Records
---
Amino acid sequence: MSVVLRAPRYAGIGLVWAWRLTFGALFPTTCKYEPSCSEYAIQAVRKHGLLKGSALAGWRLLRCNPWSHGGHDPA
Amino acid sequence: MYLLAAHIPVLSPIFDALEAVMRHVLNWFHGSLGLGWAWSVVATTVVVRIILVPLVIRQLHSMQSLQQHAPEMKRIQQKYKHDKQKQNEELMKFYRENKINPAASCLPMLLQIPVFLSLYYTLRHFATNFLCLTPATRVLIPSGPNKGQLNAACEAIVHHTNLSFLHFVPSIADSTTAHWGGYALLVIYVASQMASGLFMAPTAQRSQRIIFMVMPLVFVFVIARFPAGLVLYWVTTNLWTVGQGLITRRLVQRTPAPTAEKRSSRTPPKEDDGTSENGASPEPIAPKPAPAANARPRQVRRKKSSGRRR
């Protein structure tokens, strides 16, 4: 796939890294899922593109709540 | 520093809504309860943290069940100690099967972001959008030598509003570095952020704990450009985290035995590599006296409320 077509994905991955380096670094929490929510977001965007990947990542974040049980959940 | 996201057309209504909500909340604390503006910020923070308390209690319960299952988990860790990935997966599976909530979840953490953003925008626009709400006073002088200044009527209102915090921060709407009090607040911020980092992740590995110590020192340069009220929010929420951690420790009893497995899995003793793996393990390795030593799996003694009900 050409770099142009992949550009949105890179943007999305960049956003995740921006999060990791700012707020993410301030809140020392470990995720209950494997891979962690941010890693999942990166994988999902890389695999499915920005739109579907973001949707998947959003759904994962919603599942990552105190009432769920976590576990192995790859993108 | 201006957060760019607010200028994206799709997002700006969301930011406007967030700001409006925060404005109402602050107004209520100030108008109805008679708190000063700075204390209204503190009160808002405390309310947010009170809302999150049920999550903390859940967390406490999962710490308890983690402790109960410690021997089985140790077995899994021993079994896959050379394959971190596999070990993680197996542990996660174990959690799921035994309905344990092992770690904190991401969502509660994210819920604090809207609060932070709304406070940021409210404080940034404090004078124009908040204090000078009547049509006569809200207008900014758009251009000319006094560009960006408030008009006289609004200026007067702002001038007569007490935005100070405990007499050492003159205005919570001003940039933190505008006054020495702001620098003092920043020092408190760094200390509280470090402390809360240690409390939020007591079982974290050493390298991670170093990050929590270094990160506030980096972040302080960013936060210095925020309105002082925002730093006040951080300080309050950090101090709450620390207080909560202290109370949690009180509620929780230390139990003697199965403390060392986290450490020992990280740095397995040399003789474990070979033959004596099966039988030798029950001898716990004494943990080093680290600040996190108190925070091993523990037992919740009893909640106060259950006693009162009887």
---
Amino acid sequence: MTTDGNFGATTTDGDVTGTLPDSVTLTDSGFTSLLQDFTLGTFLDFRLTFSTAFTGGLPDSFALFLLDDTMWPLLMTTDPFGADALLAFDITGTDEGDLWFFTADPPVVLTWTASIITLPDPGNGVPKPGTLFLWLMGELAGWGVRRKT
Amino acid sequence: MNIPGGELDTRGMSGFARRILLTAVTLFCFVFVLWLARIASLAANDDPTLTVLGPEHGVTASFTGLRLNRTSNTFDTQATVTHQGATPISAPLQLVFTDLPPGVTLTNASSTDTNGDPYLEIPLPQGQLEPRNILPPILIKFDNPNRLSITFDPVLRGRIQSANHPPVANAGPDQTIAVGETIILDGSGSHNADNDPLTYRWALITVPQGSQAELAEPTAVQTAFTADLEGIYIAQLIYTAHRVMEISHTVQA
């Protein structure tokens, strides 16, 4: 993860190893979360890699949120769950999942773009890296953020 | 103090012990009344006309995603109900959660059934779920303060409409007899999948010119007539069930 902002404290729940901006691994063994404080700059780039090592129960998801300092969503989004995620990867228990990108609702001066790269399967006997690479680049340029009440 | 079933005698007890005993009895009565109210409330939600919908009915519920909604402080998922069966399902359609882990509750439950299991009543357009239809996703919210893993295998309950399958009439095979013989016509091979009340009506629609043949019991399952002349006789069976009629094959004599 890279940003021209500043990283702050980290709070974790569940099985989380590593520290940002270096690589962090969240293991799907119950509720797992990483809360990373940071001061916004103008961009935040990061890469997500999903492995196929499914161990949890269903239904299940990985979701990314932008929260304010009271832990409420900083933006309302088109997330149909009303949870205001920026993106969600629904885990289906197979090698495939369902990836969803949401937009700010109402729109604010914030854009994010992403590209998905599928890696070839390295075969058996080798620890599987992710089959799905996700680049998410956010360009933060000014804010018209409305906070939920 | 009077309680149902007798009188409590506290004579001979110390004041402290008496107060403890009276408090305990009062608490017991209070809990008992609450329990009775709970039983009455649950019984009111019991609907014996609902059927547990299984794969044989073609109705399934699938779940997508599970997210912590920090605004409502709930774990949310979406259910999609699909009907691939042949028979319409009438409201109410209930999604019953029978196996939630302790400490996890359904916050948007419609009510609780007689087993104490929470259920969500799924809105149905025009009050019914037609075959080969998929309902819009339904949001399901769980209170999960201890952030436990949530897995569940809920049960769907609904009211199966009568399919009203058309009855199938069977007047039996073609037969050949000699003049003067009596032939028995048997309609017992007719059937109706819905088990509706049935009626039979026989008629001779074609006879040789000059024949006086008549059916013995035209409204019975079995009937008979005597072939008094050489020729072709065609008998018709009309088999009626639930105001739907099916005309039979013919019998030739």
